[in-house]
Structures are given as C-alpha cells and as structure tokens.
Queue: 2 jobs
Job 1
Amino acid sequence: MATKEGWQGRFFEDFEVGDVYQHPLGRTVTTTDNIWFTLLTQNTAPIHFDHHYAAQTEFGKPLVDSTFTLALVTGQSVADISQNVFANLGWDEVRLPNPVFEGDTIYSQSEVLEKRESQSRPNVGIVTVHTTGYNQNGKIVITFKRIIMVYKRGQAPKIPRLLPEDKPIVKPGA
C-alpha cells in the first residue's frame, strides 16, 4: 500500500495573475460564533449580541460582527492562498456591501491580482489577491485585497510528519 502525501498548499511559483480559486469550504455562522467573537474582541455594540435591541433596528435581528466575517473569509482562503505564508502584509479596501446574519452560510473565492519577487528576501515572493465572500444566496457580503509574502518551493520550513509506532495490524476475529 502506497502512502500519498496530502495537499501542501501553493508556493509562490504556483500563483498566476488572473487565476481564481473557489475556496472549498462554506461555513454557517451561529449565534454562539457571533456572541463569542464579539465578547472576545470586547466589541460592546448591542447590535451583535442583544436580540431585543437588534429587533428594534431596520434589520430586525443581530448583525454578525464584521471583523468575524473578515476573519472567517480570510480563514477560508488559507488552504488555497496562504498555507505557505511567510508573513501577512495587510488587508486593503475592505468593503461590506451587505450584512451577515446568524444562520447565513458564507462561501468565498480569491483572484490573483499581482505577484512579484521580494526585493529583500530571495526565499519568498509577494502575492496580492482580491477575495470575495458571499452568502448562501450569492449575495456579496465582503470584499478585500490581501497582500502576503509566500515561500518559494523548497524554501518553507518542513512540517514534521510523525508516523505511528510500528505495530502489527490486528484483523477482526483473529
């Protein structure tokens, strides 16, 4: 039986301007997600955690904390964009054209806008992507540009791959 290596993420050489990556996982936002994230970040706006208060707004229900949306969509992009990141250099032009509500499922995709060699580090390159997050109805809820420094192939630290102890396989009924 052959052991197959799992997905290792993209390296600088793998990015091509114009490529679009549809990130594989959607995520349904729960009330707990919204309340915990709001409390963890000390956001005291009641629109995020007070259902009675939020019912009196034009939305009629709590809004998901927008920084949760940014974190979620960034996280969704990691497997495709920054699995081999050296450094996150920043987010620009963050826009939130539509609200996210508890119970919404968020999906995302990223387009490669630019790539260039690093002038200061020969082992990495710089990649700029435009990421779009959208809900279960296809309505865009967030867009942003993200700039990362990503390792070149063969330059990233090695992830230790430990193997289980060598033990005989016991067959059922034996």
Job 2
Amino acid sequence: MDWQWVEYPEGNVLMGLSSGLVGIKIMENSLREAAIAHAPFFITAPGETDILFHGIAWFVVLAVFALGAFYLTLHALPEKLAHHANHTQIQLIGVLTLLALFTHNGVFWVAALVLAVVRFPDFISPIQAIADSLKTIARNKGEFGDSTRHEPVTEASVTPDMTQQENPKDV
C-alpha cells in the first residue's frame, strides 16, 4: 500500500503501510517542520541571537543595582532623619548605621532609627541654668568667689606631704 496524506485541521497525517525506512524519514521531516512552525518565540534557530537570554540578563543586572541602591538608601534612613531634624546625637546615629551596614546586625539599625525618631528631653540645660542661678545668688551674697580666678600654685604653697605619693601602686 502506498503512503497517503490525509489533511486534518490539526495538521497533516501520513497514512498507510509500507516497509522500509523511507516512510519513517518522511514522517520525521514532516514532524520537525510542524514543530518548528509552532515553536514559541524564545526558541531561536542555531546561530541566531538569543533575545530572551539577553533580556533576562539585563533585567537581572538592573535589578541587582536597584536592590543595592534601595538597601543602601534604607540603611541611611536614620542618619537622614537625624540630619533633617538637627538631632544632637547625629554622630552616634551615624556610627550605629555604619555598624548595622557592616555587621548585618539589625539591632544597631533599629537603635539608630529609635534614636533618630524619638526626641529625648534635654536634662542638661535646666540643670546648668539652676547651677548658674545658684552661683549668681552666692556671688551676690559674697559667699562665693569667681571660679575663673585661680591663684597659681607656687613651690611655697606645696607642702612636703603633697609631693610624696601615698601608695606607689596607685600609679
């Protein structure tokens, strides 16, 4: 029996019985041609440029740079917050962010963020103002001399006990 082509909407089918390799070779060629015709766009012919590979490679390179920029921007966030708020402990916040960056320890970054966001009350200024007021009151009463004037230390004012060390192990 001879080979016959039967056409279907799905594709051509080779029908018939024959002995030998000629019929099998014809069938393989027709299947290869059908497969090439229905191949997706990302399968390239031999010797052509693989566009999907180049597209994915550029995407990965740009994504790595974008993620690196985002990571470094996120690490600099506490320092930027402290700089814009004119924070008094900006150096400590900067050191904590650098420690977090180099050690990959998130505790330092969280501590820097808390220091940058939370405004701690200023305890030194009121205490300094109280000390200055007490000094002014004492000076007005004559009980307190000016602390900026000091008498120079002379050899006559130094007693022999002052020149000797109490315990040599203390040094």
